């Protein structure tokens, strides 16, 4: 078939519009002999019938195995160069009590950035020493609670936080381990809003201010300085940015050793995953090997001991594990004029029963996703489609461009893979849609991790259903 001129240059018509590229889908996703899409032994059709759509389907074994593989890879590679590694799971990506428990069982620590995320991790039974608290504007209450429970590390993000954390630690009679978030100035190859190490942004302090900040930390007997922390971005597919950031940080790290111990170095993470068939993510063992070599070679050149290295793989742990299931509602063919070359082409709009309330990333970052028919396979010729949500926004797009069988029709189930990171966690009630349930599937069995909201849940928070207190209307009328 010919290429639709409306398709982006990277998207080519597939040989088989029913195929599931292994780099994009969870490890236990497959098609049955009848053509239905299944995850870990349960068809998405049976799950949709039981739990409704939209629905987040989490491949439990996939998530658990990726967490374990990442931890083992970093353990092995840093042991090879005479050090050790700490792997932190990013709670902000996707956090439920049971997911947190899986990460802990796999040997990962957990990074939290709010009191709510801390509460979830603690409810999962986390040893507070295996938690880290992030954030550019931690409240006094969040700092106090974190110190009080014995959190393993607090990432100081600004000079004012030094005094706040020191005061809380003194109040609790504790020496609080802290890291210092610094801006390396390295610009990762990523979306503008995902690059978090640039100078003009809200996180961290410049490297030039680091010596003074560390001296301030060391001046407080209630604080223990662990080391520097850097994060150059998210959804990163190469290692040269990490190498440059490590070089810059280790220069400062070496200088700081003159006045006291610096046992750790946190290089952040943000490792990329495949959202489409053309995305090529570095294998985790290769990432770990490169990280270990980068730090070992630079430490040797500077003549300093190898630090313990902390990393935050982010979406690489949970992103590929989850598939969102939708029901197709309407189909609309739109005739679009193409300027170069001058012609017209059809874009098929396939609207589903969710959208930016369960995946805001396409609207927020222009993120690309894939899609497949889930309730059946089809031999129909592939057609270029745009999967749209049901919200009252023209930017409510779930998948900007994809080829699906041209006979896609209302009532079909549509599956969007790689939605484990930053989809459910960013979900909203826009247009008063209830947030979908999260279901974990393993060995043919499904269980609810988070129940779906109902309209009753939404209305329960609205005080309009409560009796109006006596005198309230009178006061309003007298204004």
Please give a structural write-up:
This protein has 479 residues and is an alpha/beta fold. It folds into 2 domains: 29-59 and 320-455, Lyase, Ornithine Decarboxylase, Chain A, domain 1; 81-313, Alanine racemase (TIM Barrel). Helix content is 28%, strand content 25%. The protein contains 13 helices and 21 strands. The strands form 3 sheets. Strands 4, 14, 15, 16, 17, 18, 19, 20 and 21 form a 9-stranded mixed β-sheet that branches. An 8-stranded parallel β-barrel has the order 5-6-7-8-9-11-12-13, surrounded by 7 helices.
In short:
This protein is of the alpha/beta class and 479 residues long. It has helices spanning 44-51, 60-80, 97-105, 115-123, 140-149, 159-171, 210-218, 240-256, 284-302, 315-318, 361-365, 455-460, 472-477, and strands spanning 29-31, 37-39, 42-43, 55-59, 85-90, 109-112, 131-133, 153-156, 176-183, 205-206, 223-229, 264-269, 308-312, 322-338, 343-352, 372-373, 382-388, 397-405, 413-416, 438-442, 445-450.
Write the layout of secondary structure elements.
Layout: E1 29-31, E2 37-39, E3 42-43, H1 44-51, E4 55-59, H2 60-80, E5 85-90, H3 97-105, E6 109-112, H4 115-123, E7 131-133, H5 140-149, E8 153-156, H6 159-171, E9 176-183, E10 205-206, H7 210-218, E11 223-229, H8 240-256, E12 264-269, H9 284-302, E13 308-312, H10 315-318, E14 322-338, E15 343-352, H11 361-365, E16 372-373, E17 382-388, E18 397-405, E19 413-416, E20 438-442, E21 445-450, H12 455-460, H13 472-477
Parallel strand pairs: 4-20, 5-6, 5-13, 6-7, 7-8, 8-9, 9-10, 9-11, 11-12, 12-13, 15-17
Antiparallel strand pairs: 1-2, 2-3, 4-14, 14-15, 14-19, 16-19, 17-18, 20-21
Helix pairs in contact: 2-9, 5-6, 8-9
């Amino acid at each position: 078939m010919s290429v639709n001129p409306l398709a982006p240059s990277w998207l080519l018509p597939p040989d088989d519009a029913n195929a599931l590229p292994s780099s994009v889908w969870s490890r236990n996703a497959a098609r049955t002999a009848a053509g239905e899409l299944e995850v870990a032994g349960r068809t998405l059709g049976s799950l949709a019938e039981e739990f409704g759509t939209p629905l987040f389907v989490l491949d439990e074994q996939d998530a658990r195995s990726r967490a374990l593989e990442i931890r083992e890879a970093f353990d092995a590679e840093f042991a090879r160069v005479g050090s050790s590694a700490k792997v932190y799971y990013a709670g902000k990506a996707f956090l439920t009590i049971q997911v947190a428990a899986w990460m802990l069982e796999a040997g990962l620590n957990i990074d939290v950035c709010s009191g709510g995320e801390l509460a979830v991790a603690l409810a999962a039974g986390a040893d507070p020493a295996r938690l880290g608290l992030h954030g550019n504007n931690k409240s006094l209450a969040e700092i106090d609670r974190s110190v009080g429970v014995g959190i393993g590390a607090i990432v100081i993000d600004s000079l004012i936080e030094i005094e706040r954390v020191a005061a809380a630690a003194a109040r609790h009679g504790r020496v609080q381990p802290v890291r210092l978030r610094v801006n390396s100035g390295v610009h990762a190859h990523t979306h503008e809003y995902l690059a978090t190490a640039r100078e003009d942004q809200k996180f961290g302090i410049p490297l030039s201010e680091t010596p003074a900040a560390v001296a301030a930390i060391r001046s407080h007997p209630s604080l223990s300085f662990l080391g520097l922390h850097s994060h150059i971005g998210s959804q990163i597919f190469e290692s040269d940015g990490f190498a440059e950031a490590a070089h810059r940080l280790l220069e400062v790290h070496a200088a700081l050793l003159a006045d006291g111990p610096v046992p750790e170095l946190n290089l952040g993470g943000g490792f990329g995953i495949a959202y489409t068939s053309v995305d090529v993510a570095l294998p985790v063992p290769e990432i770990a090997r490169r990280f270990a070599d980068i730090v070992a070679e630079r430490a040797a050149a500077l003549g300093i001991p190898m630090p313990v290295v902390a990393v935050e793989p982010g979406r690489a742990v949970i992103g590929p594990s989850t598939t969102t299931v939708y029901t197709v509602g309407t189909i609309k063919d739109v005739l679009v004029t193409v300027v170069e070359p001058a012609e017209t082409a059809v874009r098929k709009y396939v609207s589903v029963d969710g959208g930016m309330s369960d995946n805001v990333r396409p609207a927020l970052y222009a993120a690309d996703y894939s899609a497949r028919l889930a309730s059946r396979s089809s031999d129909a010729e592939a057609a270029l489609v745009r999967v749209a949500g049901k919200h009252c926004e023209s930017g409510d797009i779930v998948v900007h461009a994809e080829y699906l069988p041209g006979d896609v029709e209302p009532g079909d189930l549509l599956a969007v893979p790689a939605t484990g990171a930053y989809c459910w966690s960013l979900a909203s009630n826009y247009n008063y849609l209830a947030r979908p349930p999260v279901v974990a599937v393993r060995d043919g069995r499904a269980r609810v991790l988070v129940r779906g909201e109902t309209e009753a849940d939404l209305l329960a928070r609205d005080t309009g259903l409560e009796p109006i207190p006596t005198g309230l209307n009178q006061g309003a009328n007298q204004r």
